[in-house]
Specification:
37% of the residues lie in helices and 15% in strands. It contains 14 helices and 12 strands.
Length: 379
């Protein structure tokens, strides 16, 4: 089945009782049982919900996986993965990653005896150098947030298997339209479904996808026991978003390429971070494991001052200054004070996330209008 057909039909069947083509929103907390222990597959909505079940099946299908689990947010999904570990276990993660993930690792789980090592993961050989007998999980983000670095999923997954470590890939920036980490050897895929999967900036949600039945049971037990589940309305919204993911991502990619190339030629722009450039250090790997290069990019101004960056950030009209990404509308973001503010300044500066870096989530508006907006803001 081709990708467009798969995205439109994933996880959805006409409602057997009414013929409704859209999955109903089962807004219920509990289910009537015919007799004690005899039910129709549903007992209590924290454990199961038909709308959520349809979404979880859709998540599995679009990531070429066998099992999907939905969570109340991307951070809640990440939290569930780390709960697979024990005190004394070690996690290797990238030193260029989403600030909320870094905060979860350092402020919540590190105090429970789990060790987190943050390294440059763009060369798989560097991952191998830092692996030990205690390495239980490798957390991969690619493209990275916000410097758009690329990690070789297949190479890292092959290394992890030599130590029987799990590989979880945060696939939020790419989306299943561009990249399918399970096909490249990863054990778990994580999504902040808030972003491209939902696509309309109107829902908070996360998801995990995997192939191993035992791993699914472990993660389902965590989902059910800890209760960070999404409501049925949110599941309905993400199901709806998935149906147009392929159409939206094509336009995100097209606009992203236009904006990246325009910025690179602008006299007042310094460096542009986008893996579609042939001289990007991760371009060849991106070309191998992705279908296109996405609508996310970052840049600095040639006069690289925080004051100039802040002036630009406050001057756009179509690019809205806001957290998040992946919606149909274009967003502009200041990572140092917004999405990555929880990472200490000295840590950010070590790997190049300066206080003047600007991140764009390029939407699906007319590319010419977006360029005009950036042109007047840059001056």
């Amino acid at each position: 089945m081709k990708i467009a057909t798969k995205f439109i039909h994933a996880g959805t069947e006409p409602d057997p009782s009414t013929g409704a083509i859209m999955t109903p929103i089962y807004q219920t907390s509990t289910y009537v049982q015919e007799a004690p222990g005899k039910n129709k597959g549903y007992e209590y909505a924290r454990s199961q919900n038909p709308t959520r079940k349809a979404l979880e099946e859709a998540l599995a299908i679009i990531e070429n996986g066998k099992f999907g689990l939905a969570f109340g947010s991307g951070v809640a999904a990440t939290d569930a993965v780390i709960k697979l570990l024990q005190p004394g276990d070690e996690v290797i993660a990238g030193n260029d990653m989403y600030g909320g993930t870094y905060r979860l690792f350092t402020k919540i789980f590190a105090k429970f005896g789990i060790k987190f090592l943050y390294i440059d993961m763009h060369d798989a050989a560097n991952v191998k150098k830092h692996m030990t007998s205690k390495t239980r999980l490798i957390w991969v983000e690619t493209p990275t947030n916000p410097l758009m670095n690329i990690c070789d999923i297949a190479a890292i997954s092959a290394l992890a298997k030599t130590q029987k470590a799990l590989v979880c890939v945060d696939n939020t920036f790419a989306s299943p339209y561009l990249q399918n980490p399970l096909d490249l050897g990863a054990d778990i895929v994580m999504h902040s479904s808030t972003k491209y999967l939902g696509g309309h900036s109107d829902v908070i949600q996360g998801g995990l996808i995997m192939n191993d039945p035992a791993l699914r049971e472990q993660l389902y037990f965590i989902q059910k026991s800890c209760g960070a589940v999404p409501g049925p309305m949110d599941c309905f919204l993400v199901l709806r978003g998935i149906k147009t993911l392929h159409v939206r991502m094509r336009q995100h990619c097209e606009n992203g390429a236009i904006i990246a190339n325009w910025l690179r030629e602008h006299a007042k722009v310094g460096k542009v971070y986008w893996p579609g450039f042939t001289d990007h250090p991760g371009h060849d790997i991106a070309k191998k494991q992705m279908r296109d290069f996405g609508g996310m990019l970052s840049f600095t101004l040639r006069d690289d001052s925080v004051e100039n960056a802040r002036r630009l950030l406050s001057s756009t009209k179509l690019f809205a200054l806001a957290e998040s990404l992946g919606g149909v509308e274009s967003l502009i973001n200041h990572p140092a004070s917004m999405t990555h503010a929880s990472i200490p300044s000295e840590e950010r500066l070590k790997y190049g996330l300066t206080d003047s870096l600007i991140r764009l989530s390029v939407g699906i508006e007319d590319a010419g209008d977006l360029i005009d907006d950036l042109k007047q803001a840059i001056g």
